[in-house]
Amino acid sequence: MEIEVSNDVKNLAVDVLVINMFEGEKTSQDLANTYAIDRDGFKGKLGQTYLLQTYGQIPAQKILVVGCGKRDEFCENEVRTVVYKAVKKLQQMFAKTAAFDFEVGFDWGKFGTIGAMLADYAFDKYKSEKATRVNELTFGNVSEESVKAGKAFGNAMKFTRDLANEPAAYATPSKLAEIALNIEGLETKVYDKKETEEMGMGAFLAVSQGSVQPPKFIHMKYSCPNPKKKIAIIGKGICFDSGGMDLKPPSSMLTMRDDMSGAACVLGVMQALKEFNPQVEVHGIVAACENMASGSAYKPGDILTAKNGKTIEVDNTDAEGRLTLADALCYACELGVDEVIDIATLTGACVVALGSFVTGIMGNDEDMIHRIMQTAENVGEKYWQLPMFKEYFNSLKSDIADMKNTGSRQGGASIAGIFLQEFVKDVKWAHIDIAGTAFLEKPENEFIKGATGAGVRTLLSYIINS
Ligand code: BES
Ligand code: MN
Ligand code: ZN
């Protein structure tokens, strides 16, 4: 789908002219006012649509009126929602071209573009019959820059969703490494198994050892002269989570190709940075491997030594994400950055607590957590802070090692956070749990089933605005 900008959208000979209507107000088209409002009583409530034929009275063949609700309640996130709905409607109508003559009192280009690109998204690579798509949209009353920014966000989300939707047979640790190495404008180093051994990443390596796929530790760096800040983002990169010897039941294992959604998010954000040239140094880190059950797999009762020397008794091989993140956090803390953010499909407990449209966040710096949460709200993601009381560590106590990798099932999301904190040193740190939000089993809001690109908008926006 192409998105272009024009200052003459009213006069384009497109299939559909899309206009907006606020409740209690007239639209910019007399035809729409006569038929939609005066004759049929269309109210223009948020998300409602009204379609009419133009029979040659204007260059466009049809007019689609999109309700925007009350003008004073209409903000950027509503732009995204209504443009999404309009494009979905255009797809159902088999429209190929459309012009959007929205007049909403502000530059709606960025959020409109994101909404349109979300509506355009389908993972139909492996389908013989492709999804119905609109070929070309033209936006009026927007700036070129806002549409350009929207495209960078939209493309980053698509990049992440495509990667997370791919079967594990495709998105292997080696594939993630290859993708990272192919991103232009970054300095990227991929450490292989031997090098991670030399670095002392005993926790990450233990998780990887049951798989025939070799582990890859990926470090991407975006630099700029005189950075205002240095940030590391770490994505959980379990390319398939079978549970290991503590094998998951089939229904839980079915979607576990999504267990690298954090990694896919980090890759999506890193490849988008060049579009914005932020004055921030950004490190993108992924400890990529599979968690498999086999003759070489790590076992319950094993004792692992992480990069910082702390020892971990394996209580449950299915709590593998925190083990790989432990070594990645140690590595990130040695980079001399100001802030570390990890993003992970980490706990089923977070899904139970917050559901599938709210992401969990916790960390060691209230101010940083609040800034991330505020960013999330601005870009249309929902984040909720979970507690990190030190008492949560009690259930991680081990008789024979410094800690166990799992504790009580109750409060599981916070316990995972408390575990991760053991590997964070002298840095502001936030942990984002996207177990519920990264991958949907049924469509929700602007997302079809499957990968959502959770975290991409928030992390990209957070970095750009740092
Ligand atoms: N990858 C899972 C968490 C998960 C669950 C992600 C559901 C997406 C949807 C993680 O590795 C895991 O298995 N966690 C266990 C931890 C438990 C053994 C303490 C869980 O949440 O059950
Ligand atoms: Mn697991
Ligand atoms: Zn996992």
Describe the protein:
With 466 residues, the chain is an alpha/beta fold. The protein folds into two domains: 2-141, Leucine Aminopeptidase, subunit E, domain 1 (3-Layer(aba) Sandwich), CATH 3.40.220; 154-464, Aminopeptidase (3-Layer(aba) Sandwich), CATH 3.40.630. It contains 14 helices and 19 strands. It has helices at residues 30-39, 76-92, 109-120, 144-165, 173-182, 193-198, 202-208, 250-253, 261-272, 321-333, 348-354, 366-379, 412-421, 456-464, and strands at 2-5, 16-21, 49-53, 62-67, 97-101, 136-139, 187-191, 216-222, 229-241, 280-291, 303-305, 311-313, 339-344, 359-363, 383-385, 403-404, 428-433, 439-440, 450-451. Helix 3 links the parallel strand 5 and strand 6. Helix 7 (202-208) runs antiparallel to helix 10 and helix 12 packs across helix 14. The chain is elongated and about 80 Å long. The two termini are 31 Å apart. The mean pLDDT is 98. The structure holds ligand BES, manganese (II) ion and zinc ion. The site of zinc ion (ZN) has 5 residues, from strand 9.
